[in-house]
Amino acid sequence: MTSEQVADRVAGEAGERDGSGEASEGYQRGLGNRQIQMIAIGGAIGTGLFLGAGTAISKAGPSLILAYAIAGLVIFFIMRALGELLMYRPVSGSFSDYAREFLGPFWGYVTGWTYWLFWVVTGITEVTAAAKYVQYWDKSIPQWASALVFTAVLYLANLISVKLFGELEFWFSMVKVTAIIGMILIGIGVITLGFSDAGDTASFSQLWSHGGFFPKGIGGTLMTLQIVMFAFLAVELVGVTAGEAADPKKTLPKAINTVPWRIAVFYLGALIIILSVVSWTVFEPGVSPFVEAFAKIGLPAGAGIVNFVVLTAALSSCNSGMYSTGRMLRDLSLNGQGPKFFGVLTKRGLPLRGTTVSAACMLVGVWINYQWPGKAFEYVVSFATISGMWAWIMILLAQLRYRRKADRGELPPSEFKAPGAPWTSLFALAFIGMVIVLMGIDKDARISLYCAPVWAGIMVVSYFVLKARNPQAFARKDYSAAARESVDQAA
Q: What is the DSSP track for 400-443?
């Protein structure tokens, strides 16, 4: 393969580039800085925080704050590793494309299809959750009907333009951010000024006065790590926007560098305030800690407000799933590792076919809600955590391989090097490995690991079948010439 052919592949089948010299892959760079920043923020705030934190608090008490802090640091290491790769070669295939380049065609194939499945499963999960939240206001509305409406509306929005997707994510994220900041400010007022029904007991001493900071021991804290990591899933979505970001060299590093303060404010800040207003002993599994806090403060509308916020969080996640699945299917198609059917873009630069098929798969959630409305959420949630963490593992391994090649002068250096690498990446890999082991110990989370070997078997068999039919599509490619050309044109 010549360097010109490689360059054409990196720029897309049409070999298109935008005005900045970045590979456009045929997409329109319609996501501005404002939208990219809010997509990055929204990716780190979801139902894992608004609902999952209640279960985690009951298992670990105030020490959950430490679990989120350590996991947040690991997430920052992962995002900086992704950032280093994105600045080397910003493409919409993102970590699937990097796994293909640095680890081999098999790993890119598995990563692309696994991330696609992750978002389909997550979309089913979130649309199911959204249907449940609607029943808070009107129990007469069937879950399947709400799930169908939400799926259809988000699908249509993703067919109009990437800008509309960006706007939806901007406002979904704005609702979540406003709710958390409002809760923090109200909580600080209760603690410092003593107003509301919780004013007499609210105090930062609540963090250690009910059995200490580790009331369930270090073991209890460790066993919440899979819940904590689930809450951070989708933070890597900002990498998928690389092919459609208006100015990826500026917007993506800025979005990634905001990860520490986002985690500090929206996770650590919110938990510190909530656990200071309400004793950790009050929280129960399956109950939102935000609802409990609002109830303790004495705001009658609090539960309804939080329900609206978690509904928004669920729709935001489903919207992200609609967006990313179409891009992943197209990336697989362009590499010959998926049906050619998915490689076509509309005149607006949208992967219509991939998005349509993915939305159709998400409609399975409507059927599940119709058949088993009481157990729908549990039936589809088990695979999300392990498949999402697979993407993180591939990001870290690809970055380690890239850094070695760049240090040897075989590839151009990234403009956004991960600080502390390779040690930070190795630490993050070890941490993820520990979380997977803990999932195996926890009987409630173990079902996730049962699903993984089944999917792995499907991937291995399908890989060898497709490779036998089209060996060229699964041959190693040399991206170095295209990467250098991209750097030269961007300079």
A: HHHHHHHHTTSSPPPSSPPTTTTHHHHHHHHHHHHHHHHHHH-T
- Among all chains, which residue has been given the structure tokens 């979801």? 46
Count CA atoms closer than 13 A to 16's CA, side-chain side: 13
Q: Can you say how many angstroms the Cα of residue 218 is from the centroid of all Cα atoms in its chain?
A: 27
The answer to whether residue 478 sits within a structural domain is no
Instruction: Give the per-residue pLDDT at 352.
Output: 86
Residue 82 domain boundaries: 3-470
d(CA 131, CA 315): 10
Distance CA 4, CA 475 (A): 17
Q: Could you tell me where the beta strands, DSSP code E, fall in 308-415?
A: none
| Distance of alpha carbon 292 from the chain centroid | 26
- Phi and psi of 233, rounded to 5°? -60, 140
Q: Can you tell me which residue has the tokens 């280093």?
A: 84
Model confidence pTM above 0.70 = yes
d(C-alpha 460, C-alpha 454), whole Å:
10
The three-class DSSP label of residue 134 is helix
* Cα-Cα end-to-end distance for the chain: 25
Q: What is the CATH number of the domain that holds 165?
A: 1.20.1740.10
Q: Are 88 and 483 in contact (CB under 8 A)?
A: yes
21, 486 Cβ separation under 8 angstroms? yes
Domain annotation covers residue 190: yes
What does the alpha-carbon distance between residue 338 and residue 328 come to, in Å, rounded to a whole number? Answer: 10
Give 86-134 pLDDT, tens digit per residue: 888 887 667 888 999 999 999 999 999 999 988 888 888 788 778 878 8
Helix, strand, coil % (nearest 5) of the chain? Answer: 75, 0, 25
* Integer Cα distance of 46 and 177 in angstroms: 11
In the Cβ-directed half-sphere of 386, how many Cα atoms lie within 13 Å?
21
